Fold these 2 entries.
Entry 1:
Amino acid sequence: MASGEAEDYYGELHGHSDPARAVGWEDATRQAARFEAVARYVREGDRVLDLGAGLGALGRYLAARVEVRYLGIERDPRLFERGRAMQPEVALRCADFMVEALPEAEVVAAVGVLVDGRSLRDDGVRFGRVRALLERVAGAARRVGVVVLLDQDRLEADPIRRREPALGGVRLGEVPWLAARGLEIEVVRVLETDLALVVRAAALRADEPAEVS
């Protein structure tokens, strides 16, 4: 369940007429840069599961480039209803992706979904949320999961954004500890503010043949 600060954050965003701003992105260009961090791993015909889908914009972005079977899951009912009205052709479901059972997909994405309240200023709580999110993504991914988060060190260095209690991210130095949970994680820099954690849960797929590059 989202905290009061997160509810306030979503409520403020919901009033924006710009779809990119309505889900927390600075502008459509920076939104697209984050989506491209996912698109590079998507193949023709893939199932793509988008956790924290907002208005379903990732589904529309991918459909313009490759044929995919997209499903977006959004836990905020206001964003879900707005997305369904704006893009009825995009498959969306309203559910809490951290609680509900998830369908499997070749690619599972979670782009900018670490939103909560002041508890994220506690490093232990924030790290636990990142770990739980990665495990959810890895558990549903048949090939790869892509989690795009704010760089927590860059966030805290920004005198304006660090005052926003709803936002949280991941530190580069935390990635080895996350990988120790049995996940293979590649880190890709996205813009100057974000990190993409590319997750390959090899231990969960040990019974499958390795891909040949």
Entry 2:
Amino acid sequence: MEAFKVLKKALGNRHYLAVAVVVSVTSVVLTILLPNWKLVLEILSSNGSFWEEIKTIVNLLGAFKTNFTAWARVYLVIISVLFGINVSIIIYYIKDKRRKFGGNATAIGAGGIASGVLGAGCGACGTFVFGSLLSSVGGGWLVSFFPFGGQEIKIFSIALLVFSIYFAAKNIGKPSVCALKI
């Protein structure tokens, strides 16, 4: 239960909550826009006014509804929120350790963050980064053996992110030195 108290304390701070929200929203926006990155670059390099370019890019966010299945939207939101919380709690952890020891702090949660990035993607292109990595080494066929067509990767990402958040929050409450046995 200590981990939940630490998590509540960290996210109760408006700065860490803001980090979580900004990272979560940025994650969603980038996941929606990344498949159309060439179009985004074309829009930004056009001769239109700045506000027209921004409006056009914002309109591209409608792809969330059209290019993603219902489950893909749910996974995307869950992974993005967990990703934001994970980044926020890791920052809290590092600052907590630096405050206590004034120096080096160990960052944890890289596995959760990496899996969140690898598991991001839409129903049309599958998992954006993971699919690209697999296909670049000839392993794209591997996803066809998964019973749910690769959705397992997203579920695994959620599980890793939850574990990473729990592990980081649990370690924040622990003393950083071992108790002496006398």
